[in-house]
TrEMBL record:
GO BP: any one term: regulation of cell shape
UniProt-recorded name of the protein: Putative gluconeogenesis factor
Chief site of localization: cytoplasm
Keywords, in A-Z order: Cytoplasm
UniProt similarity note: Belongs to the gluconeogenesis factor family.
Length: 338
């Protein structure tokens, strides 16, 4: 089964880990609007696509259960733990107080390869090949993007909205985000990402930072068109809880209404939520109607890590496997026959 997973940050990391329980053919399509921390510094100094979320996606595919099995290299040597060491190294941040402080090793490696090869996709593909990673990681756009948001609650008059710019500013605003835009306003979609969506059997969107990691995908015209044209089954995973700043006070239903306001032409097959985040009763009935705005069916299950507002990859994989049981079996047979 070919899977395209759209998102960014820790949400996409969990999704990729879950999908790798089901298939090795997973393509990550990653947001490229980060302007904070190491990514922001490298973006400003080198003009490269911010590498942080791309690095995390690579690390997720390296850290997937199958990737951590013992592997035999070209010299016949067996390496226990598979990619574990390199996955940890990619995520390792330099300490100290100098110029390298805070930079993850993977960010520097990806930025360096991009400069040498002149193409971020070529750099990502090279890392996938060198480290023998199952799957692929792609940026959603071929250029670095900026997020601009209309935010209320920052002025004495609550009716007045202020325009703020930058992913970090949007993610940490004390106001209420009303709408987001991308700059440039008509960003080019990564052609390989478009192809991955069009040829996928399953497309997964979310979870993640709603305004800065999930909604940006539907603001790239090429990606939105691909999502409309693909014959793949499309699943939306909604966050377990509101995020301080970006979606403070948001209900699960509100997440869906906001996404629909940014892309009312988007059609989805399945909206998936955690049972504990939406109690049975009137609130869940409202959520069923919100899912119907996308033409989607609502699915509720136990998806969270106990005691933490994060998705459990194993539970997510199990639910997706149940929903796609017929498809998974069919694709397994097809792969065996080929």
């Amino acid at each position: 089964m070919r899977v395209a997973a759209l998102g960014g940050g820790h949400g996409l990391y969990a999704t990729l880990t879950a999908m790798r329980y089901l298939t090795p053919d997973v393509t990550a399509v990653v947001t490229v609007a980060d302007d904070g921390g190491s990514s922001g510094r490298l973006r400003a100094e080198l003009g490269v696509i911010p590498p942080g979320d791309l690095r995390m996606a690579l690390s997720a595919l390296m850290s997937a259960p199958a990737a951590l099995e013992a592997r035999t290299d070209g010299r016949g040597r067996t390496h226990r733990g598979g990619h574990r060491l390199w996955a940890e190294t990619f995520q390792h941040r330099f300490g100290g107080r100098g110029a390298l402080a805070g930079h993850p090793v993977g960010n520097l490696l990806l930025a360096g390869l991009t400069e040498i090869l002149g193409d971020p996709v070529a750099a990502l593909d090279e890392l996938v090949e060198v480290f023998d990673i199952d799957g692929r990681v792609l940026p959603m756009s071929s250029v670095p993007l900026e997020i601009e948001a209309d935010v209320s609650g920052l002025e004495s008059d609550p009716r007045i909205s202020r325009c703020i710019r930058g992913q970090v500013a949007v993610a940490t605003t004390p106001g209420k985000v009303r709408r987001v835009r991308l700059l440039p306003t008509d960003p080019p979609a990564c052609p390989q990402a478009v192809e991955a969506i069009l040829t996928a059997d399953l497309v997964v969107l979310g979870p993640g930072s709603w305004f800065s990691s999930v909604i940006p995908h539907v603001l790239v015209p090429g990606l939105l068109n691909a999502l409309r044209e693909t014959t793949a089954r499309k699943m939306l995973f909604v966050n377990l809880a509101a995020e301080p700043g970006e979606t403070t006070g948001f209900s699960v239903e509100r997440h869906l209404h906001v996404l629909h306001a940014h892309a009312d032409v988007l059609r989805i097959d399945d909206v998936v939520v955690d049972a504990a985040s939406v109690p049975a009763g009137r609130e869940r009935d409202h959520l069923v109607r919100a899912a119907e705005m996308f033409g989607a069916q609502l699915h509720v299950g136990d998806l969270a890590v106990p005691g933490r507002p994060v998705h459990d990859p194993g539970k997510v994989a199990a639910l997706v496997g149940e929903l796609c049981e017929g498809e998974v079996s069919r694709y397994a047979v097809r792969a065996h026959e080929s």
